[in-house]
């Protein structure tokens, strides 16, 4: 149950007005910056039923994370949806 609820929440965020105002840029440069400056690595990737592919990069040591979206209509472009701290992966079936 955790997975569908989490995916739905992220998909809704990608379709919100905040997504339209998010910082967009070259996907490759974004990933390079996340790994080199913040030590974040790809932790989760999923494709929304509404179209965008959603990716979460996270640093397991510091707990920082970045959520961004890419779409087939704009290849090579990534839009940052949100950033934060206290990233934790819960085993499937763990109550939130």
Q: Which key phrases capture this entry?
A:
single chain; 96 residues; alpha+beta; 30% helix
What is the element layout, followed by pairings?
Layout (H helix, E strand, L loop, with lengths): L1 H13 L2 H4 L2 E4 H12 L2 E7 L5 E6 L6 E6 L6 E8 L12
Antiparallel strand pairs: 1-5, 2-3, 3-4, 4-5
Concise structural overview:
Helix content is 30%, strand content 32%. It is of the alpha+beta class. The radius of gyration is 13 Å and the shape is flat.
- Uncertain segments: 1-20
Shape: flat
| Radius of gyration over C-alpha positions, nearest whole angstrom | 13 Å
How far apart are the first and last residues' alpha carbons, in Å? 10 Å
β-strand amount: 25-35%
Helix and strand element order: HHEHEEEE
How many structural domains are formed by the residues?
A: 1
Q: Number of helical runs?
A: 3
Q: Report the helical percentage.
A: 25-40%
- What is the makeup of the main sheet? 5 strands, antiparallel
Structural class: alpha+beta
Number of strands: 5
Mean pLDDT: 81
For the largest beta sheet, what order do the strands appear in spatially?
1-5-4-3-2
């Amino acid at each position: 149950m955790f997975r569908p609820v989490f995916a739905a929440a992220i998909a809704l965020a990608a379709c919100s007005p905040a997504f339209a105002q998010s910082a967009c840029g070259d996907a490759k440069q974004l990933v390079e910056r996340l790994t080199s400056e913040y030590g974040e690595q790809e932790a989760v990737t999923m494709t929304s039923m509404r179209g965008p592919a959603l990716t979460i990069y996270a640093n397991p040591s510091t707990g920082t994370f970045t959520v961004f979206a890419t779409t087939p209509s704009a290849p090579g472009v990534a839009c940052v949806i949100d950033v934060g701290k206290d990233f934790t992966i819960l085993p499937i079936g763990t109550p939130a």
